[in-house]
Structure formats: structure tokens, C-alpha cells
Amino acid sequence: MVGGPTAAIQIGGLTKDYGSERGLFDLDLEVKEGEVLGYLGPNGAGKTTTIRLLMGLIHPTAGSAQIFGLDCQRQAVEAKRLVGYVPGELPQFGGLRGSEIVAYMAGLRGGVDDRVVARICERFSLDLAQRFREYSRGTKQKLAIVLGFMHQPRLLILDEPTGGLDPLNQQAFYDMCREVKHDGATVFLSSHILSEVEHVSDRVAILRAGRLVRTASLHELHEMRFHQVEIEFGGDVPIAAIRAAAGVDRLEVDGHLVRCIVRGSFEPLLEALAGSEVTNLTSHEPSLEEVFLTYYRDGASEAPAAVETGS
Amino acid sequence: MLRIAWRLQRAGVIGMSAFGVVYGYIQAAAYGKAAGATAASRIALGHQLEAFGRTYSWILPLPVRVDTVSGYVQWRIYGALPFLFAIWALIAATGATRGDEDHGLVEVWLSSPVGPGRYIATRFQAFALAALIAVVATSATIRLTIAGLGYSLDLPAVAGDSVALLALTLVCYGLCMALAQFASRRASAVGLSGIVLAVLFFVNSLGRTDAGLRAVAAVISPFYHLDRSTPLTPGGAFDLGATIGLFAGAFVVTALAAWLMTIRDIGSPLLRRGRREHAVTHVPARNRLLRVPVLSTLYERRLGLLGWTLGASIGAAYMPTVGRSIVDLSSKGGSFAAYLAVVGGSDPYVALTGYIWFGVFQLALVALALIWVARWSADDSEGRLEMELSAPVSRRWVVAERALAFVATAVVVITVSSVVLYLAAAADHIHIHADDLAVASVALLPFVLSFAAIGAALTSLVPRAAIAVLATIAFLSYLITEGGPLFKWPDWVMKLSVFSLYGTPLTRGIYWTGFWILLAITVAGFGAATLLMERRDVGR
Fold first, then answer.
1. Higher confidence at residue A297 or residue B219?
2. Is A55 helix (H, G, I), strand (E, B) or coil?
3. Under an 8 A CB cutoff, do B382 and A91 touch?
4. How many CB atoms lie within 10 A of CB B359?
5. Which one of A180, A309, B51, B296 has the minimum C-beta count within 10 Å?
């Protein structure tokens, strides 16, 4: 564990063992103040468990976690004063209006500036006059964002916060993350969507089956990303040119159909295709799990234990 | 489909069958203890029960030939079971309709090639099967227990009572499913159905001593038609027409429920207020109550608080009339003096009004505690607790806030209803001493708080099972109060009942031993709730 006086989050040997290999195991991680850390992992990897441990909602089997030097278990109340939390899904607030829920949570928390609330609501076009049960899933998520950001916390812990948001609102959310970072806040952003963390993160931590397999800079993350491409030709397949194109890998040819993966830019591949009769070209971004599988199958990182903490 | 519906019904049928078996056994076995071995002792018991029974005519049928075992079973057991089965029907019906709709389950059903009509029909069939099992289990227990005492109950008569009970249960189920179509949430469905069933029940029970109400009950109340069948009472008979009428009624209200569900939007109540235009707002509510702990909870539950206060006040306002009519009805019997010796006090009107009111009010307050505990448990499973704990508040603060909000609610309900009882009694020339009433009312606080405290501890320990465990504790506690005197259980067993620990403070003064035990349970319960809450993991 690498520690420092300015760490917003300091996690050492943190373990929550639910049995049957489920939970979180021996997590060492540091998030510096002012940093945006993308916390990536497929479903069930242990992201929410980590967040619940940080929020003091569950007790660790072993290890410890600190927020700005405050122990997340013993000094949970003091630590939570500094934290804004956005859950993946808001609880049921029944017949209360949005404005009443905000007032209620502001009463619990204290130090909420109504002008900040108004600013966030306007940004997301969130009408607080409506009752909670009338809100759509996306609108509930907007409310969750308001509740997490309204007291301008030093640390934001966000658990898959864009679920249910449309692309415009997702963009507004990413902008807001960048702004709070600019203002000096730290963001711990949990997600299973690679492109989401790319938007805002300085660094990513990748979790798989309850273990931290890697921390990486944004540049390293780009290296890991690839697209699965399928090209159908009307005539001859320029196989040599495709094979020679930078970033192309795992080439498979089946008659006039070519399958491959492309890392980085598409430009070399498109140049290789110039002059050929392409009847169809499809490309899709694989899921995070597929990225991991490909990543480890390729031997890019043989040992998951090659953990890089800090920077 | 039926298999899935049956699976959803499984916990209910196990719970209700177990309840029916235990209740049936205790009530039947109590007869053996109370009746003695001789004909003379049975006749003496009959006279005594007749006097006692008349005082319960607002909730049980009038006792007829209770000196015989079959008359006793008809009155004491089959007289009370409809009320209990109706409550089960209410819980099951509102759960199958609004409850499962709140959880998105109905939407899943209806996304398959199943229409609302078939959905309602399937749930009804599954419940009918569950009700049949529970009724048969209960009746079999009663008959076997009575047989074990050396008496016999006529099998066709027991079957007749069972069929009538089943019919009534199904009417209540269908009716509550229909009423649930008008509600926007499970809680409001329970409230609406509870009010309607209570009205139908009391119109019939009060109609037993009021000819005007009896005529109304004959038209609207299924309980009236159930009362027509008294096959176990010597000289009584099974009313086939009334029972067929109940079954027909069950099908009609179920068909109505299906039709209402067909014509409404899933996720919305049948009748909706026109959506009022409102100004868009981006600022938090100005209401200061929302920002103050305890008051924010009371504000959020203001409708429930109002409903409970009004309901209790209406009951309190009506109670002196009930007390007076029962005293007038019963005081001619020779056993009434013995009865008064039990309830205490010199003025029979004061004694009986207070005895009945505080007996009923105790049960109502237990229901209030159960509802609050259910809410605490839901806060946990629905993520509300997690959200609150994401704010800088401690877990002990959460327990303390819950306790204080409940105390405030109980104080309001008890105080207002006691004032109403005092005024209504005075208006009816029943002179309850204000001091005695204040003492009896204050003593209710540790009584209801002890239930809430046990519930709080259970919520911290096993949130998902808290309500079932607390309801079982309440039920067993009540059974001790009921069965203890009959079975002559020792004093320490009686002290296990929270109901017994309250005593009869209106006429005999406060029962201090009980008071201190209740207070100790309250402190220990909330203390344990705090410790357990500190140690447990929170989350959905």
C-alpha cells in the first residue's frame, strides 16, 4: 500500500469475504486528492462491495479503508461529511415530491446551498415538484445525482451513476464530473462501461472476481481497448494489406468474409481496404468482460497480481 | 400459472394453517379445562359464558347453548375465526394485487400472454386452494382436540361451519382485490380494504343488538350471511342458501376485480385525480419540518397518523354506547357480578367501557407497532436506510430517531383517543375519573413501546423476518392472556404476555410490576436494536 498525506482514499488489504469466492479480496488502492479514478469491473466483480465498505455500510472481514485519513468504520460519520454518494438506484421514497426528498436529505446532511441544488436541477431539467413515484428511472437517477452533488463534497463516490440516463444527460453528467475535478474534488467512479470512465478519469482500477487486477493510466487503457470488426467483400480480399495494417490482430478469413480485431485507430485498416469492393462492414465495442478475456488470453498481462498502485 | 401463483401463496398458507391449528387447539383444549368433569360444572360454565359472551356481542355472535361443547365451539371458535380469516384474506389479496404490482411482478406476468382477467382468476384459484387447506387444518384440529377431551363434534356440522368459513374468506379476498384496484399503493389498498371490511364486520356485529343495523347488515355484510349458519349449536342449522350466496358473492367480486383491472392502467389506480398543472421547481421544499429529525418522519407519515388518530377516536367515541348497551343487556344475568369481579371497579358502566376499550385499544396499538416495524424493515430492503446512512448520521442515531418518531405517534394517538373517550363517556353519563383514565392511558405507552422495541431489535437483527417474528410474538402473547386463566398457568407464564403486564389500570390502578417489566423490555429492546445495528451489514 502506498500512502501519502493527500490521499482522498487509502485502502489497505481490504477484504469482504461472502464465501464461495464471492466478495472483495485483499484490495490495496490509493486515490489522490483531486484525482478522478474510474473503478472498472464486470457485474459481480466487487465494485459495489468496495463502495459499501467505503461508506461504512458493511464491515470488512480484514483490512481497512480511510477517507481523508478518517477510518471508514470507526469514524464513518466524520468521513461521510466529506463524501457525496450516488447509488446506482435510489430507494423508494413513495409519495414524497422531489423537492421534499432533497429537503429531507439536506436536513440529514446539513450545509446544502439551495442555489447549488437549483443549478444542478436546471442542468438536468429535473422538476422537483413531481412526486417520486411519478419519476421515470432516468429522472430518479437525476435526483440521485442531485443528492450526491448538492453539498459540494470533497469526495464523490459514484456507483454506476449513469444508469437510465439518456446520452445528453450522460454528457451533462460527465461535464459536471470534470467541473468538480477542476474545483479540486476527488471522484471515485464505479462503472462497467469502458467508454464511460474514458470520458472523465485520470486513472482506472480494474477489478475482476473480487480482486484488483490492474491500475492503469488513461493511455494504457486506450491500449487495452479494441473493436471487433467484420468485413464482407464483393470481390477479392486484400488479405496481405489487412494483415500488414497497424493495430489489426486475430485475423480470420472465411471466403469473402474477414473477421479481426482492431486496436487503436481505424485509419490503417481503412487505408488497407482502399480500392477493394467492401459490401458490408460492421464494428462493435466488446463488453468489459470480453476485453478482459481477450486481454488476458493475449498474454498482455500474464499475472493478475501485476498490480500497479499509485502512479 | 397456477403453480407460480401457488408458490407465491405458500408462506401465507403455511402461516395461516399453523395459526389456525394453534388457535383451534388452544381454544378447544380450553373448554376441557374450563368445563370440568360434571354436568353441573358444564352448566355453571354455560351460565358464566353467557354473561361474558353478551359483553362481546360487538365482536362475537351472541352465545347460544354454550353449556354444550358444540355450542361452545360454535360460539367461541367458529365465532372468532371469520374475523381472523378475513384479515388473512385482506393481507393476501392486497399483496397479490397492489403489493406484487408495486414490486413489478404483475407487469412481468402481464408481459407474458396473460390478461388481467386471467391473472386475477389464477390468484383467486391459488388463494382458494390455500384457504381450503387452512380451513380444513383448523377444523380438523378443533375436532381432534375435542375428541381428545372425550367429547364428539358432529362431522357434517363441522364441515358445514368449515364450508361457510371458506366462503366468507373467499368473499373477503375477492372484495379486497376489487378494492385494491382503486389504490395507488399496497399501503393504501390495505387501508381502504381494512376500512371497508371493518364497516361490514361491525355493521353485522353491532346489528346483533340493533334491529336497524341488522337490516343493513342483511343487505351488505357477508358476515351477516355467515352468522346464518350455526350447525354446531344445538337446534341450529347450516344455511345452504346463505352459504351459496357467499360463494356467488365471491365470484361476483372477483369478476369485478378482474374487470376493474382490465379497464385501468397497470401501475396506476382506477380513479386518478386529474393531474394538476404545477410550476416547475428546482429548489428544495421550504417546509422546515422536513429538515428536523423525528418531525420529518411524522410529516411523511402524516396521513397514517391522522388515520390512526381518527380511527381510534371514532372507536373511543362509540365505546361508551357499546359499554352501556352491554351492561344493560348482561346485568340481569346472575353471573354478571362474577364478571365484574374480573374487570374490577364499582361502577359497571365505567368498568366495562374501560375494560372493552382498553382491550381493543391494546390490539390496535399492537397493529400500529407492527405497521411501523414493517416500515423499518422495508427501509432496509428498499435501500432507504442505505441512503440515510450515506449522510453523516450514525446508526445509533437512526435507531433513536425511529424510536422517538414512534413515541410521538403513540402519544398523539393515545392522548387524542383518551380525551375523546372521556368526553363521549361524560356525554353518555358514564363518569370515568380523569385521573384513572390518565393513568390507564400513560400505562399504554410502555405497553406499545415494548412491542416496537422488540420489533426494532428484530429489524436490526433479521430485517426480512422481523414482521413475521413480531407478529408471532404478539399472537403468542395474546394466547397466553386468553388461555392462561383457563389453563391456570403459573404467574411467571402470565408475565410472559405483554398483554397481561398491562393489567386493568382504569379500575384497579397501575400494575407496577408489569409497568416496570414493560419499561425494561422497551429499554432492552431499543438498546439491543442499537448494538445490533452497529454490528450488521446494511444493504439490499
1. B219
2. coil
3. yes
4. 16
5. A309
**Four-point Cα dihedral A283, A288, A293, A294, nearest 10:** 40
What letter represents residue B204's amino acid?
N
* CB-based contact, A46 to chain B, within 8 Å: no
* A117 contacts B291? CB cut-off 8 A: no
Mean pLDDT by 10 residues, chain A (311 residues): 68 93 93 93 89 94 95 94 90 86 93 93 93 88 95 94 89 93 94 81 89 84 80 90 90 91 88 90 76 57 37 31
Tell me the C-alpha distance between B364 and B425, whole Å.
Answer: 20
Q: Tell me the C-alpha distance between B386 and B391, whole Å.
A: 9
CA distance B39 to B530: 56
Instruction: Determine whether the interchain pair B290/A107 forms a contact, defined as Cβ–Cβ distance below 8 Å.
Output: yes
What does residue B163 show for φ and ψ, rounded to 5 degrees?
A: -65, -45
- Convert the pLDDT of each residue in B252-296 to its tens digit: 999 999 999 999 888 888 887 766 677 889 999 999 999 999 999
Contact B539 A83 (CB under 8 A): no
Contact A55 B281 (CB under 8 A): no
pLDDT band, very low/low/confident/very high, at B15 (cuts 50, 70, 90)? confident
Work out whether strand A62-67 and strand A211-217 pair parallel, antiparallel, or are unpaired.
Answer: unpaired
What is the mean predicted confidence (pLDDT) over B380-393? 90
* Chain A, window 88-147: residues with a beta carbon less than 8 angstroms from a chain B beta carbon: 89-97, 99-100, 102-110, 112, 114, 117-118, 121-122, 126-130, 133, 147
In this complex, do B392 and A80 lie within 8 Å of one another by their Cβ atoms?
Answer: yes
- Residue among A217, A1, A131 nearest B276 (CA): A131
* Nearest residue on chain B to A73, alpha-carbon basis: B534
* Mean pLDDT computed over every residue of chain B: 88
Rounded to 5°, angle at Cα B405 from B399 and B408: 140
Taking CA–CA distances from A120, the nearest residue in chain B reads: B282
Nearest by Cα to B63 from B306, B335, B262: B335
Neighbours of B11 (CB within 10 A): 12
Q: State how far the Cα of B141 lies from the Cα of B136, in Å rounded to an integer.
A: 8
Give the pLDDT score at A299. Answer: 46
Mutation target to probe the A interface, by most A beta carbons within 10 A, among B390, B395, B532, B537 is: B390
Cβ contact (<8 Å) for A100 and B287?
yes
pTM of the predicted structure, to 2 decimals: 0.81
- Of all helices (H) and strands (E), which one includes residue A39? strand A36-40
Q: Which set of grid coordinates corresponds to residue A89?
A: 438506484
Is A52 touching B (CB cutoff 8 A)?
yes
